[in-house]
Amino acid sequence: MPLDATKGPRWARSTCPHDCPSTCALEVELLAEDRIGKVRGNAAHPYTDGVVCAKVARYAERLHHPARLTQPLVRRGEKGVGISAFEPIGWDAALDLAAERFLRAEERYGSETIWPYFYAGTMGHVQRDGIHRLRHAKRYSGQQSTICTTLAESGWLAGTGVKAGVDAREIAESDLVVVWGGNPVNTQVNVMTHIAKARKGRGAKLVVVDPYRTGTAAQADMHLMVRPGTDAALAAAVGHVLLRDCLADRSYLARFTDFDAAAEAFYAERSPAWAEAITGVPVQQIETFAALYGATPRSYIRVGYGFARTRNGAVSVHAVSCLPGLLGAWQHRGGGALWGNGAIYQLDKSLIEGLDARDPSVRVLDQSRFGPVMTGDPQDLGAGPPVTGLFIQNTNPAVVCPETRKCLEGLARDDLFVCVHEQFMTETAAMADLVLPATMFLEHNDFYTASGHTTLQVTRKLVEPPGACRSNHEVLCGLAKRLGAQHPGFEMTAWEMIDATFRASGHPGAQEVYDAGWHDCAESFERQHFLEGFAHPDKRFHFHADWAAIGAAHAEMPRLPDYWPAHDQVTEDKPFRLVAAPARSYLNTTFTETPGSQKREGRPTVLMHPATVERLGLGAGERVRLGNERGSLLIAVEPFDGVQPEVLVVESIWPNAAFEEGVGINLLTSADAGAPRGGAVFHDTAVWVRPA
C-alpha cells in the first residue's frame, strides 16, 4: 500500500553501506513505496550522534538518479562506448548467457579461468561477501583483497597482534588527539564530532600529521606536514625525544612490551635533526609535538589509512603504533590508539562465504594487480590459465585500480567475457559484455560491522527498487543454479542468512538486533586498552616486528620501527611526489555521478605549491602534464601553499572521462605490492611535471 502522505513524513532506520569506517546509523525519510526524501544521522546512535557526511545526506539524488541501470543489458556495439552500445535483455536470458559463457570458458581452461572480482561498493556482509560462496563452490580463482586495508593492517598487527584498539568514543575524553595519516573531514566525519567534544569539554589539542593541509589539518592546533612515505622517521624522532627527556613510561614498557636495549639504542640514534632531513618537518616542530605528546597521558592517536598506502606503509603504521607504548597512554581513558576494530565482532561467516567449500589449492590473484593479471603477467598467473571470465560486483576496476592503462587493455581483450552487476554505467560496465542492474542499500536486507566504532547493525529493505534491479544475493543464487554450484547458502534468503550467521557467531538473532537498533560489541576497558595483554603469545606489545609471521615479502623490512626508504624515490627525471588523496564529495568512484558532488568538486586539479608554480612558469588554472614511466595526463594547476614544494596532490577518484585524454589519475600509480603481504600503493608515486 502507498504511504499515507496526510500523516506526515515517516522515518525509518538504516545504515550507510559505503566504504568508510564510520558505518553511520541513519534515519531515512520515506515518501512512497519507491521514494525517499532526506537522510540524516541517527542521533541516538552513540558514535554517529546524529551526524552524516553531506554526500550521504543527499542520497535521494543517487537513489533516484535518472541514469540508474534498471534492466539487464547485453552489449552489441564496441567496448567502452557506454549505454548506446547495449540493448535490453531479459533476466533469464541474461543469467543463461553468463552461465553459458562461464561454463564454456571453464571447459576450455579449467575453473580458475573465471575470476569473481569485488570489493566495497557495499560494506554489507551478505551482499558484499556472498560472491566468495560462488567462488568456492565452483573452485574459481581466489581474490586477495589488498586494495584498501592490507598494508595498514599488517603494520598494526606487527605491534598489537589484533585488529582492535581503543573505542573511538573515548576520543571525547582525550586531552590530545593525533590524527595521523587521515583526513576525517573528507572521509570519516564522525571522528570530528568526537574531537569537537574533547576540544569543547576538555580543552583538548588536535594535531594532524599529513603531507598536505587537508580540511582536518586546517582545523588543527598543529599540522606536521610530512613528506609522503616518511612517517616512520617522524615517529622514531618522537620516540627519541620521549626517551631522551624522561617522558616515556619505563614501568609500562617493562610490564607490557618487548622494549629492550636494542630498541633503546635504536631510538637514541633517531634524533629530530635526522628526521627533519627525511621528512621535511622542522626540528622545532618535532620537538614541540613530542613534548606535548609526552606531557599528555590521555593522548589518543587515530591511525589513518593514507600513510599506509606506500611501499613502506606497514613499517610506518607499526612505527606510529609504538608511540602509545612508549608513553604508556594505553593505561588511561581517552589514551592509546585505534586503527580498526574488525576483530571484536568475531563473526562466523562460513555460511555467507561458503568457507566449508573452499579448496586451498586454488590459486589466489591479487586484487590490486588487476591490470597485470588481466594483461597476462606470468608473475600473477603463475602456472594457471589466463582469466577469460570476469564476474564483477561492488567495484569499478577500470578507474580505481593502479596502472589504469593495463586495466583498460585487459578489459578490451577479445577472448574475455565480462559480466558486471552495477547501479550505473560505470567505465568498467561500459567494457562489459553483459551488465546487470543492482539494487542500492535501501532496497535489500543486510548487516554491517564498523571499523571505526563497535556496533553491529541490521537493515531491512525500505523501498522498492526501480525497474528490474536485483540484489547481489539474488543474482548470485540465480547464477549458482545455472552453473551447478551447490551450497546451502544459495537456498536461503538474505534475512535467513543474517540470522543464521548471528546465531553461529554468538550474537542475538537478526530480528532482535534490528528491533534494538544495533548491538554494541564493545569490549571491556581492560581489553580495549590491552591491560590484559596484547594479542601475541607473550602478551606484549612488539617493538620488534615479526614480519615473517605476517607475510612472505619481509626480507628487507626493519625489525625495529625504523624509516625504510622503500618508497618510490624522487629522481632528477621525476622530482615530484604525487598523492592521490580522497576528495570530500566522492567516495572512491561512488557519488561521482551525483550532481551535488560534481558541483562541489568542479574538475580535476593538481594542488601545487606557489613557489613550484612560479618556478615552472605557470599560472592558476593552466594545464600541465604529469607523467612517469606508466604514462602521462593533462590536468589544471591550483596553487596551494599547504603542501611542500616537491609534493603534488590530486584529490580523486575522478572518472577517467573527467580527464582531457580519457584516462584518470591511477594511470600514474603503480601496481607494485607493498610488503610484507601486498597492498596498493596509491600514495607512493614519483612524477615529472611539464607545462602543457
UniProtKB/TrEMBL annotation:
List the SMART domains.
Molybdop_Fe4S4
Q: Where do the 4Fe-4S Mo/W bis-MGD-type domain residues begin and end?
A: 9-67
Highest taxon, organism lineage: Bacteria
| Family matches, as PROSITE patterns | 4FE4S_MOW_BIS_MGD
Per UniProt, which keywords does this protein have? Iron, Iron-sulfur, Metal-binding
- Listed InterPro entries: Asp_de-COase-like_dom_sf, MoPterin_dinucl-bd_dom, Mopterin_OxRdtase, Mopterin_OxRdtase_4Fe-4S_dom, Prok_Mopterin_Oxidored
Q: Which CDD domains does this one have?
A: MopB_3
Please give the family membership noted in the entry: Belongs to the prokaryotic molybdopterin-containing oxidoreductase family.
Q: What is this protein called?
A: Molybdopterin-dependent oxidoreductase
Which species is listed as the source?
A: Aquibaculum arenosum
